[in-house]
Specification:
Layout (H helix, E strand, L loop, with lengths): L1 H30 L1 H5 L7 H30 L6
Helix pairs in contact: 1-3
């Protein structure tokens, strides 16, 4: 049973969550691209870069929480 849970977490859950987080960073960059590029010269580059930095921070925090959860779930002793 424990091996089945570990296989599920490593084979399906981890790649799926990683893909979703990567897509989140890409969407965050695309949403802030006009501020990062600052083509109009309005001084919004710092705002755009900080928004992307916060997005990356949330992704790193999410990865840490998921890795910790996987470690805890992998160490469970299940019996039926």
């Amino acid at each position: 049973m424990k091996q089945d849970i570990n296989n599920l977490l490593t084979d399906y859950a981890l790649p799926l969550v990683t893909l979703l987080m990567l897509l989140g960073v890409i969407v965050g960059i695309l949403n802030n691209w006009s501020a990062i590029n600052d083509a109009s010269g309005s001084g919004r580059r710092k705002e755009g870069l900080l928004n992307v930095l916060y997005t990356i921070l949330y992704v790193v925090l999410g990865i840490t929480i998921i890795a910790g959860s996987m470690t805890l779930l992998g160490g469970l002793k299940l019996s039926v």
